[in-house]
Amino acid sequence: MFTEERCNIILQELKVKGIVSVMELVKMLDASESTIRRDLNNLHNEGLLKKIHGGAVLIGESTSLHDYMVNVRQSLNVDDKTQIAKYAASLIENGDIIYLDAGTTTEILIDFIKAKEITVVTNAIVHAKKLLEKNIKTFILGGELKIITEAVVGPTTVEDLKKYNFTKGFFGANGVSNQNGYTTPDINEAMVKAEAIKRCNEAFVLADESKLEEVSFITFGAIKDATLITSKIKDIDIKYDTNVVEVSKND
């Protein structure tokens, strides 16, 4: 396939989806990863799309404004997410009662859990399955299943949460800022996150650098409501009004 043809297909996919990942394009176009990255670089330089870690979005589009399918988000910022998740998992201690929010970084966290005799409550279908495979005592919340994020959300889920109390909670977010706090695009998902944070002795938001200084539609927590675990915060000229843990590949 010629370069021009590949680039046209990439731009068409962006118009439909708003975001594409490198690995998605590799499979779709039957091309090498290096070829796809070169195409994205060229289109970025021509001002036809905006490159992000692991993929691209439409010009003027922000990844904080929309929910994207899990299989797309899983291929973005993988290295940063893995380091953040690994550190977060190290905070879980024997006997903890954990709330684990839906999200791609919180899903990776499960791979690194070493603590024993813990109990986990989650609103994520995939998370529950992975936790059970690790023989971790798991409860899943009731409510409406949201297909895009594979999360259980809504008023029923909020009511279900009210009977639990957690030693620690780990959350995802689409945007993080001092003024607007922790934000997400969907009000039903925000309701669940907000209630869960209130029920945690300690709350942690796991957000790679692409989420920093981004603002999504609904605030589910003030910046001081949780400790922020992130990457490369030193590259952003701002000091967050909360506890911040910056992780790197050496952590």
From TrEMBL:
<feature type="domain" description="HTH deoR-type">
    <location>
        <begin position="3"/>
        <end position="58"/>
    </location>
</feature>
<dbReference type="Pfam" id="PF08220">
    <property type="entry name" value="HTH_DeoR"/>
</dbReference>
<keyword id="KW-0805">Transcription regulation</keyword>
<dbReference type="GO" id="GO:0003700">
    <property type="term" value="F:DNA-binding transcription factor activity"/>
</dbReference>
<dbReference type="InterPro" id="IPR014036">
    <property type="entry name" value="DeoR-like_C"/>
</dbReference>
<keyword id="KW-0238">DNA-binding</keyword>
<dbReference type="InterPro" id="IPR018356">
    <property type="entry name" value="Tscrpt_reg_HTH_DeoR_CS"/>
</dbReference>
<dbReference type="InterPro" id="IPR050313">
    <property type="entry name" value="Carb_Metab_HTH_regulators"/>
</dbReference>
<keyword id="KW-0804">Transcription</keyword>
<dbReference type="Pfam" id="PF00455">
    <property type="entry name" value="DeoRC"/>
</dbReference>
<dbReference type="InterPro" id="IPR001034">
    <property type="entry name" value="DeoR_HTH"/>
</dbReference>
<dbReference type="InterPro" id="IPR036388">
    <property type="entry name" value="WH-like_DNA-bd_sf"/>
</dbReference>
<protein>
    <submittedName>
        <fullName>DeoR family transcriptional regulator, fructose operon transcriptional repressor</fullName>
    </submittedName>
</protein>
<dbReference type="InterPro" id="IPR036390">
    <property type="entry name" value="WH_DNA-bd_sf"/>
</dbReference>
<dbReference type="InterPro" id="IPR037171">
    <property type="entry name" value="NagB/RpiA_transferase-like"/>
</dbReference>
<dbReference type="GO" id="GO:0003677">
    <property type="term" value="F:DNA binding"/>
</dbReference>
